[in-house]
Design goal:
The chain is mostly beta strands. Helices cover 0% and strands 39% of the residues. It has strands at 2-3, 6-7, 20-23, 28-33, 38-41, 50-52, 61-64, 70-74, 80-82, 91-93, 103-106, 112-116, 122-124, 133-135, 139-142, 147-152, 157-160, 172-173. The termini are far apart. The relative contact order is 0.06.
Length: 174
């Protein structure tokens, strides 16, 4: 660390009493605010524990892999992108390769709730969807308390407008 024309060397712990500014008076790149316990990057007036203010034309936050590929970006326009630093959507996810699902929601026991595969298929209850929309489990389409359309995978009954009630051994009820 060099401050002005003076060097600073430490072979152990270093404690700096007071605020720490790295940069010039007009261009403060890093500011450790010891009074408010805040770290500011790009400004000295941040109002959060970690505050990052980018300059025009630069994304304020990016995490890249060891090969330089973007992993996570917060773009200058406020959009968040996973797998790309040029996302054009409010929240975008880009698969890094064709063998990985770019988006999954699962329980802590790995029970799958929702998957979007790398080829655009959407699965509910499955991590390997085989159709544009692939539902593993019962399906119910309704507005209110009465089903407009339903599929009961336990009984094999498909119904339209009858609230999931099958009569006798029928498989389709309209």
């Amino acid at each position: 660390l060099e401050v002005g024309n003076q060097g600073f060397n430490s072979n152990g712990d270093s404690i700096i009493n007071g605020n720490l500014t790295i940069g010039t008076t007009s261009n403060q790149i890093f500011f450790a605010d010891t009074i408010n316990n805040r770290i500011n990057i790009g400004t000295t007036t941040g109002n959060a524990t970690l505050f990052v203010q980018s300059t025009v034309g630069n994304n304020p936050f990016e995490v890249v892999s060891t090969t330089g590929s973007s992993i996570l970006s917060i773009l200058e326009n406020g959009n968040i992108s996973v797998g790309s630093s040029t996302g054009n959507t409010t929240f975008g996810i880009k698969a890094q390769n064709e063998n990985v699902n770019p988006f999954e929601v699962s329980s802590f026991t790995n029970e799958n709730f929702l998957t979007i595969s790398s080829n655009g298929l959407v699965g509910f209850g499955t991590s390997t969807p085989n159709a544009k929309v692939d539902v593993w489990g019962n399906l119910n389409v309704a507005t209110g308390s009465i089903s407009t359309f339903f599929v009961n995978t336990g009984t094999g009954v498909v119904g339209i407008g009858n609230n999931g009630i099958a009569l006798g051994d029928e498989k389709l009820r309209v």
